Each structure stands twice: as C-alpha cells, then as structure tokens.
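--- STAGE predict ---
source: upstream dedup step, 1 unique chain passed
mode: sequence only
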Amino acid sequence: MPCTPARARMLLRGGKAAVLRRYPFTIILKARTDGDLQPIELKADLGSKVTGVALVADYAKRGKTVVWAMDLQHRGQAIKDALDSRRGIRRGRRNRKTRYRASRFDNRTRLAGWLAPSLMSRVYNVMMWALRLQRFTPLRSVAVETVRFDMQAMVNPEISGVEY
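--- STAGE serialize ---
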C-alpha cells in the first residue's frame, strides 16, 4: 500500500521494512501483522499534449485522498516532425539524379482500428504507466475521463448549419 514518506521512514528506522527499489522508491514490509488494503483507483485525464494520472485512495475515515499524481508529457508533435522530415528526405531522394525509384502510393492499405503514430504513442504511454502502477499498488478500478469539447459552440452558442 502507498504510505506517506514519514511513515516509510518510521518503518525503515524501526527495521520493519526494507528498500525494495529506489526508483520509484518502494519499500517492502518484512512481516505484515495487521492492516487492511485500502482500495486504490487509477484515474487518468487524457489530453492532446499532457495527460494527468493519479492514484486515489478511499479511506474510511478521511474519504478520498490523492496518494500519487503526475503529468505525463506526450511526444505527439515530435513524432509528427520526425515523420515529416523522413518524408521530405525521401521525396528529395526521388528527385535527385540517382537510380529510379518508383513512387509507391497505390500500396497503402490500413488495418481496421488504425491510429496515427502520434496517437498510438499517446495510447501506449498511458497504458505503460497504468501497467507500471499496477505492479506497485493494489488497484481496484480504473477511471479514464474522455470528454470532447465543441470549441466553436463555446465561442458562439447560436451557431448552426453552414456557419460551422
């Protein structure tokens, strides 16, 4: 179970726990005598550039408390820039006086459920952190906030039809 740094220091000083790993700092109890596991919920708020991830504990006496939180920076624009650079180099290679290399624009088929590389990077990044956190805490549930905003309707609520 996640605990406060003060409690971790107390357990380490008393010899009741040992350091399991330094990053992320994790301790393991030598002999567990009592204490229940509190239900921990993983919450994720997805964004295009940053995703917020938090572990929330539901304590009986204190209510819901954020145990751990982080902002996950995505590489979407860096991936797009790398693909654009690669495409530009490839097109330049075709236009130079080198051996002929035919364009291959007719052999592009995408599988069902295909996502762009920048989006797949975001999905894999959030999924990997969820699996990492699952190894260290007893997760009860996962809550992912997915919301779509109509920015045009927020600016002008009366907009409709061709005006969009």
